[in-house]
Structures are given as C-alpha cells and as structure tokens.
UniProtKB/TrEMBL annotation:
Organism from which the protein derives: Deinococcus petrolearius
Domain Amidohydrolase-related: from-to ranges: 282-393
UniProt keywords, alphabetically: Hydrolase, Metal-binding, Pyrimidine biosynthesis, Zinc
Protein name: Allantoinase AllB
InterPro entries from the UniProt entry: Allantoinase, Amidohydro-rel, DHOase/Allantoinase_Hydrolase, DHOase_cat, Metal-dep_hydrolase_composite, Metal_Hydrolase
Encoding gene per record: allB
GO molecular function terms listed in the Swiss-Prot or TrEMBL record: allantoinase activity
Length: 455
C-alpha cells in the first residue's frame, strides 16, 4: 500500500501539464500513472497544479554569525511556505563566510539544527583563499561563488581579476562550477563617489551608479576568463537581456555556462524602485520596462537556465531612512518566488511546465542534485507542491515567515496560492499554513546520500 496518493491534479511533467496520479512510498515518488492502487492517505487534488518542490539556487540565510538577519529557522519557514523544498545557500553574509572547511562545518551545524527544508551549500572564492578550494570541494560544496564587485563585508572579500582568473583555473581542474556576481567594481564605486560628493543620496543615484554597462562588461570578462581556463561558469541574478545574449553566444560556441534571473528583476522595474525606495534596493538594480520585457523574452526563448530569489533579508531598520547608500541592498523574496512567477508567467503565456523546469529541474542539476530533486518522476524525492491556480489573495506583512517581514510586494494581489507542500513525503504546509513542529532538513551533497557528514 502506498504511503500517499495524490490524484486529479494537473502535474508538471516533461511533456507539459498532464492529469495523473502520483504515488509516494518511503519519502520517494514510486509511480506517476493515470490510476493507482490503495494508499494510507489519498489527496483529492482536482483543479490544482502539482509541481516539483522549488530548488532555489541562490539564498542567503546569514547563519552562523548573522542569524539576527534571518537564520535557518526563519528562512526555511519562509521557503517552505512558498513551495521551496531545497535551498542552495550562498557562502557570504554568514560569519565566518564559507571559505574553508572549518567554516563549512559551522554552516552545516547551523543548517542541520534549524532548517525545515533540504539544503546544498556553495563555497566561496575570494581574495585570497585559493589554497582552500580543493578541500571545500572534497568536503561537499556544490560549487563556488565569487564577487567581481568589491563589497563591504570583511568576512567575504571580492575576487580581483588575478584571483578570479587563477581560481577559475583551479576549479576547472576540480570539475567545479563558479557562480559569479558580475558587476564592474571600479566603475560602480567611482560613480558612487562622484554622486555622493554632489550630495546625491536619492534612489535615482543608485541607478546612475549601476548603468547597464556595469553588468555587461564584467559578464563578458567573466566569460573570457572562463573560456581561457576551461571553468564551468554560472552567471547569477542577470538583469539585462544583453547579458543573457552574451552568455547564449558563448554557450553556442561551446562554453559550459549557465544563467540565472531573479523574480524581482522579472516583476519590478526601475520605476517601482523610484517609487518604493530602499525596500526595493538590490544589486544589480531593477531595470527599465523594456529590459524586463527582454528578460521574459529570454525565458520564452530558452536562454535562461534558472529562476531564483536571491533571498537576502536584513533587519527592517537597515531598509529605513532616506539615504539610499546606507540602506541594505537585498530583497526578501523566497516565500514569493513561486506565486510571483506563476502569476506573471502564466499571464504572459509561459508554459507552467517550462517555469517548473527553471524553478526546480535545472537548479537541481546545477547543484549536482539532478538525480534526486526537481522532477515529478519515479525514484525522485517526494518534494511536491500543490498550487491553486485561481485563489486570489493580497500580501500582508503577517503572511511573511521571514524574521523581518518587509517586502517590495506588500499589497500585491496574487492569483496562485501554495496549498500543500511535501518534503520527502512529509507535509510542511497544509491548507496554506505551515505544519507546526516539522524540522529535519538534510544536507544534500552531490554524489553522496542525503545527510552524509563531512569526513
């Protein structure tokens, strides 16, 4: 007898949405068929969408060291409420940053103590931890992250060109992928100094300090470095269709390059930033409506590989005030990524199965978890999300499970609503509400069984 049977839903399968029954035993999907036998629990999902749990490849939970910014307990609650069953957490914002094996052990301990959802972990490449890269790779990180933009974080310094280039050479030898935040440091910091010297601290100044070329040039430079070293490259949070076109051209020429676009860059514009101010501050910034349309065209054309949140919250006070330079630059987004992109994507005619691949299947493969996560198929973990496609609701602050419930999307009306979420067959969300007392998220190491510790 099956542990769980979900029947009547339209299921996101490789061929598109199809009505099917899904059977679960022992935390895994064992059957996807028109009809299934008896089960201990049967869910009637007629009228609903059944999707694989979202695999978010770009989140910052900031623990250890900055748990007061978010932390694994709050961040994973927000993830689960939004249909995210696996996160791939970034090395920075935590103290210490995940730039050596000792720091990785601390990150795993924090995650295992607090996370409701499963997790994989990025390691960091910075100035200068190149000697640590082989150890981190062997210990189980799914890839590495580097900043081409100098950031104000003493625990995670940016990678100047020589570190980036030589680090790529090391990672190529390890067979590891490098995720790059591609913004031109000298240009942005120089423009910022000029603007501040003129007394500018308004939101428009932030946009002027981050012109489109400040992203496109380092994207092209990272592609050149990766081509010369043979390093697999992942370009995070691209905000320009021109950047996606450059990556697509490199891939057509034989490079191993993947791309990521975030929900906020697809659903907000620079006009929204000027209206909302610091709550919508991010880097790279929100772009003009024409470029937002270009990003959606790239989604439709297949030149975007992954959709992500870049969830990066901070205390509400760090988003307050009228000085745009002092405000924290990040978006509180993980709980809203799925409903945002379903609403906007369906409105634009994007196939739900395509959105699901970009939100689940492709990010799982990026993280080295494509053998177990991201698909509704026999042998895969029963990470599943039931979504009501027509259940209108309006976002209030008390809906958010992040430690600091601010969002540029407060007051937005949604059509899609997350109803039920299972992680490896265990319910995390029921009727739109979190199931109390559920923990047990496991570290997902590429090539290792879930929960395998560091040797």
């Amino acid at each position: 007898m099956l542990d769980l049977k979900i029947e009547g839903a339209r299921v996101a399968l490789p061929g598109g949405l199809q009505e099917a029954a899904v059977g679960v035993e022992g935390g895994q999907i064992v059957a996807v068929e028109a009809l299934l036998g008896a089960a201990k629990r049967t869910v009637d999902a007629r009228g609903l969408l059944l999707l694989p749990g979202v695999v978010d490849p770009h989140v910052h939970f900031s623990e250890p060291g900055r748990g007061h910014w978010e932390g694994w307990a709050h961040g994973s609650r927000a993830a689960a409420a939004g249909g995210v069953t696996t996160v791939v957490e970034m090395p920075l914002n935590a103290i210490p940053a995940t730039v050596d094996v000792d720091a990785l052990r601390l990150k795993v301990a924090a995650a295992s103590a607090g996370s409701r959802v499963d997790y994989a972990l990025w390691g960091g490449l910075m100035d200068d931890n190149r000697a640590e890269l082989p150890g981190l790779h062997a210990a189980g990180v799914c890839g590495f992250k580097a900043f081409m933009l100098e950031i104000d974080d003493g625990s995670f310094r940016y990678a100047p060109d020589h570190v980036l280039y030589s680090g790529m050479g090391t990672l190529a030898g390890l067979g590891a992928r490098l995720a790059v935040h591609a913004e031109n440091s000298a240009l942005i910091h120089g423009l910022s100094r000029d603007l501040r010297a003129r007394g500018r601290h308004d939101p428009a100044a932030w946009l002027e300090a981050h012109p489109p070329v400040s992203e496109l040039e380092p994207v092209q430079r990272a592609l050149l470095f990766a081509r010369d070293t043979g390093c697999a490259l992942h370009l995070v949070h691209l905000s320009l269709p021109e950047s996606l076109a450059a990556a697509a051209a490199a891939r057509a020429a034989g490079q191993d390059v993947t791309t990521e676009v975030c929900a906020h860059h697809l659903t907000l514009t620079d006009g929204d930033f000027l209206r909302l101010g610091a709550v919508a501050k991010c880097a790279p910034p929100l772009r003009d409506p024409g470029r937002v349309e270009g990003l959606w065209a790239a989604v439709q054309a297949g030149t975007v590989d992954c959709l992500a949140s870049d969830h990066s919250p901070a205390p509400s006070a760090d988003k307050a005030g009228d000085d745009i330079w002092r405000a924290w630059g990040g978006i509180n987004g993980i709980q809203l990524t799925l409903p945002l992109l379903l609403d906007e994507g369906v409105h634009r005619g994007v196939d739900v199965a395509r959105l699901s691949r970009l939100l689940s299947g492709n990010p799982a493969r990026l993280a080295g978890l494509g053998d177990r996560k991201g698909r509704v198929a026999p042998g895969f973990d029963a990470d599943l999300v039931l979504v009501h496609p027509d259940a209108p609701w309006t976002l209030r602050a008390d809906h958010l499970h992040s430690r600091h419930p601010w969002s540029p999307f407060l007051g937005r009306r949604f059509s899609h609503r997350v109803e039920t979420v299972w992680r490896r067959g265990e319910r995390l969300v029921e009727g739109g509400d979190l199931v109390p007392g559920v923990a047990g998220g496991l570290w997902q190491r590429p090539g290792q069984p879930a929960g395998t510790p560091i040797a």
